[in-house]
Amino acid sequence: MAQAKAAVWKTSNNAYACILAYYTYSRLYMNKNDIVDILEDIAVLLELKGENPFKIRAYSGGARALEAMEENLGEVIAEDRLGSLKGIGSALVDKIQTLYATGELAYYTKLRDSIAPGLIEMLEIPGLGGKKVKKLHDALGVESVDALQKVCELGKVAALKGFGAKSQEKILIGIANRANYAKRHLWWKAHDIARPILEGLRALPEVDRAEIAGSLRRLKETVGDLDFIVASAEPEKIMEWFTEQDTIQEVTARGATKSSIRFESGLQADLRVVPSEQFAFALHHFTGSKEHNVAMRQRALAQGFSLSEWGLKEVSTQELVVGASSEEELFSLLGLPEIPPELREGMGELELNAMPELISSDQIRGVFHNHTTASDGHASIEEMAQAAADLNFDYLGLADHSKASFQANGLDEARVFRQIDEIFRFNESDQSSIHVFSGIECDILSDGSLDLEDSTLEALDYAVMSVHSSFSQSQEEMTKRVIRAIEHPATTMLGHPTGRILLRREPYQIDLEKVIDAAIANRVIIEINANPSRLDMDWRLWRRAAEKGLMCAINPDAHNTEGLSYFEAGVNIARKGGVPKEQILNCRDCAAVAKWFKDRS
DNA sequence: GCCGTTTTCGGCCCGACTGTTTTCAGTCG
């Protein structure tokens, strides 16, 4: 349901008008994902209409069936095979074909027009579903969140049959916290909250096993909520411990085997306690992703089994197959090698012949692209080097800003040479337990030229080139600009290639396919900027880019000593992208790195 | 609205939890 709500939000009002105009005037066929969104919208709208729940389910089921279909939609329609998909009957065939061919659907337009947009927004309030929203609308004439707040404050909701004082209070709290609750959270911050809870759970004597599931376990860059899965024969005591954590703002559900809590940041956490024999299945199910689970269930069905969080059943007899004590065994029951959680995104991981070897943090020998007090950092060369040594690194790269980044106290030519000198003296001194490479984070100016003289860049060990200005250029201009910088002989690495700030700033327009090809052709490294708010370049692009030969560097972009530890977030992304260690510069020793800087091999 | 079929319509995934009601409806995942 959460997904259906999101879909409505996505295609509501103006957005839908844009999609419609796009397909109406472009003579393009509507793509599969837009049709899936519309089917999900219809399901939500029907819910608000108080329609037959099975009809509603038929629409969301149809959306899922369409989404899971791997073949080309145009071909399937042309060959008249749409109706043979399970979950898509004659009515949906008609609607999907109409949408595909015209981009429009009168049934949908009429349905949308009959429902106040405010009602869809009301579904975002926890505890309110289609039926309750309909009741609030029918009984009290409520058509917006604002109106709902007013009737709650007047006590009218509590007087409604089926509601009560508690429901009214919950709605008011839900309205007040709506922005927070809808938020996603950076993996790094969510992990900080989750780790002590997981450790606490594991320390309880009643707990056999405990894991964190969901997108946190899959190492997604942002996380919606936390899912803890625990194996135990005594759920009561675990529930008690979980719901009495002092970091909790609110307990939103507390049952015998399932509880939900909310932290001050708005982050929600669910805990499920299952018997030990179900643990592997529950952990796998709640780790997801949804797409991965769909693919797994399809594979099971093809072998005569039905897979769920409870276990693996024989379809013909409905009897449980022999259990699995681990996820590895679960995968093996379906003839698969164990797929690491971070690869479970429904992106063809079931079809991989061999699982890629994923790197680990202890293979990282050092990091590049970090700042000192010379520009906008908060620690000196010595302090940063000591912090790097404390992390057991063999080397540290320092890359302060160049002069165009005036706001960051960027270095001009003279200051660059002074810093090179300081780093040289540091490396020669007794206090250096690790080697410091002298680098720069040089601005790529708006025309693609570089912010420092060639002779200055050549005096450095390496140079990271980054865009820090003119973000609103067209995709064509930006792509050309960045590729020009990549083609400069002094360029060692490209910094944060899209400039995105997660949950805050969209990436700038850039054709990364072309950028990747140019980087490969020029032996230029693209970084994984490991700042938890960036994680740029995105993991979704890495598998294919690495297969084509792109080199990677994991760069914490640290502005203080603590920031060096962000490299762990970059390791997560390299794992998720399946980048092999041979193509990660940080996995090489100091001499090999120096060699790469010299001749790029 | 889909499916399967005893072909013309009945059943549809389901368990956990909350709140309101006192046996159940609605929400959530």
Can you walk me through this structure?
With 601 residues, the chain is α/β, with parallel strands linked by helices. It folds into 4 domains: 112 residues, DNA polymerase beta, N-terminal domain-like (DNA polymerase, domain 1), CATH 1.10.150.110; 65 residues, Orthogonal Bundle (DNA polymerase, domain 1), CATH 1.10.150; 163 residues, Beta Polymerase, domain 2; 240 residues, Metal-dependent hydrolases (TIM Barrel, Alpha-Beta Barrel), CATH 3.20.20.140. It contains 26 helices and 16 strands. The strands form 4 sheets. Strands 10-11-12-13-14-15-16 form a 7-stranded parallel β-sheet. A 5-stranded mixed β-sheet has the order 2-4-7-6-5, sandwiched between helices. 41% of the residues are buried. The structure holds one DNA strand of 29 nucleotides.
Chain-wise SSE layout:
Layout: H1 2-11, H2 13-26, H3 32-49, H4 53-68, H5 73-78, H6 90-102, H7 106-113, H8 117-122, H9 130-140, H10 145-153, H11 165-176, H12 178-182, E1 185-186, H13 187-203, E2 209-212, H14 214-217, E3 222-223, E4 225-231, H15 235-242, E5 248-254, E6 258-263, E7 268-274, H16 279-287, H17 290-302, E8 305-308, E9 311-314, H18 327-333, E10 366-367, H19 381-390, E11 395-401, H20 413-428, E12 435-443, H21 454-459, E13 464-466, H22 475-486, E14 493-494, H23 512-521, E15 525-529, H24 539-547, E16 552-555, H25 567-576, H26 590-599
Parallel strand pairs: 4-7, 10-11, 11-12, 12-13, 13-14, 14-15, 15-16
Antiparallel strand pairs: 1-3, 2-4, 5-6, 6-7, 8-9
The structure holds one DNA strand of 29 nucleotides.
